[in-house]
Amino acid sequence: MLNITNLHAETAGKAILKGITLAINPGEIHAIMGPNGAGKSTLAYTLGGRPGYEVTAGSATFDGADLLEMEPHERAAAGLFLGFQYPVEIPGVSNLQFLREALNAQRKQRGEEPLSGAEFIKIARAEATSLGLDHEMLKRPVNVGFSGGEKKRNEMVQMGIIAPKLAILDETDSGLDIDALKAVGHGINTIMRKPDKAVLLITHYQRLLDYVKPDFVHVLADGRIVRSGGAELAHELEREGYVGIDGVAA
Amino acid sequence: MTLLALPSARDEAWRWSDLAALPALADARPSGQPRSVDDLWIDISGPRILFVDGAYDASRSNPGPVRIGQADADASKHALGRLAGSTGWSLSLGRDAASDTIQIVHVATGGANHLAAEIMLDEDATAAIVESFAGEGWTNRATAIRLARSARLMVARRFVQDAGFQSHADTADIAQGASLATISLVAGAADSRLDGHLTITGIEAYAEAGGALLGRARQRHDAAFVVRHAAANGQSRQIWRAVADEQAIASAAARVEVARHAQKTDGEQSLRGLLLTRTAAVNLKPELEIFADDVKCGHGATVGELDRQALFYLASRGIPPLPARAMLTRAFVADAFARIGNDAVREAFAETADRWLDV
After folding, report:
1. How do residues A144-160 score in pLDDT, each as one tens digit?
2. Beta-carbon separation of A73 and B315 below 8 A
């Protein structure tokens, strides 16, 4: 589904990703862990196409298409979802309005008919219920006045409504209390743990992996994947820390 | 050639306006072929009045309580308002009277047309007026508003001409406990100059002047409003949103004057500008002149661009750049219409703004 080969990227003139190679197949959940400054968020933003993140070498294909040639909104319509570490507040735009516009924009780009207001509201309510987000919050401006946990639940509701093929979740677990963490884990499992979908879970800590069991764990350090393994690698990292892993500076 | 005595940009109150097109428009003749106005009527019950090039079209109007003929717009001191003359329309409601929302459509076909208006509400009377300006040419209006004790008036105006120039000047006296809200939306392709001088003459009265100025190409939009508190315990709100794209210049000057005896005045000014490109310009000038010592007057003026993080967030959810820009701009101007009480009118104004954004 996603094939990244020797990806190099920089931001603000500084090289951050220094040759990442990673293949994610349908049905797989990959976790990327690593110390602060390793390039985890840069990897997410580069794959999402954020302006200011420039690819200097390498390639990334998504379902065989050149991901790096696509505009950010085209990547979304192709089935890529980027979950934000810090979801952006958008005053004056309600969650429902935003999501309906997003979903219909994606459908239009894929040549599908737009959903009516009633069809959309039904889907939105079902997803909010499934993730424990108060329906009233769907009417509120996007993320404005939401707590950290509510913002991340809202990201999951968006993911449920948009129903992507691949979700890249950037530290979705940061700043969450245990209930919100469970809800987010439940969201990822319910929405994305399917044979035709895949997840790239970027996290600093192992704790989200108690709820979402990864098939593969990779350690990112100084812009490279320095080690890969199964779920047990996350436990090892939790026990022993990143120091000691080859390529991680003490 | 008509000799027009127009203020120049050297005059501080007119420094952001460009009146250069007016002499030629004053000399031009209207074509007399108006565009269709069907899209300008909002689907609500109530009187409907149509003016074509400033002339009343009786066959397509249902004036209700509005009278056509003499009107004293009380604009002799205003450089453009004084040209409005002494004929036009008037609304006079007696004590406790209430009118359905009155819609007035002004369509112009070129040249220049001038019209005066007078609105007088007696004690406890209530009215709402929606005016729409469309077509081309120079459309010049002046309106005098007098609200007696506890009267309430809302005037919402849409300026959506395709070409030419739109000028409007309000003067208002607001007596004890009375309330006036004027809300303007400029969202066409013609230049504009809007003026207002609202005076709170009685205690515990309310005055609001605000709106949204949307400009692109080389348009100039200029709003200059003064609220004068001449009595105690009054409240005023001036909420302006100025959006400029391409080479447009959108300007808003809002002034609050508080007389020495107008204690406990509560004034709020919120002026915000949005530059959609760096070649556009927004000028904002909040002014406060306060002689009373026990007042609360808040003011804010900010100009910025669309939030790039928000744009990327919308893109990451599949929304292409132009709709994303429109969505954030719509949210930016929404505050300006929030106080239009009638849902159908508010939605019509939002739709008019949307059409401008979607071009």
Report:
1. 998 888 898 889 989 99
2. yes
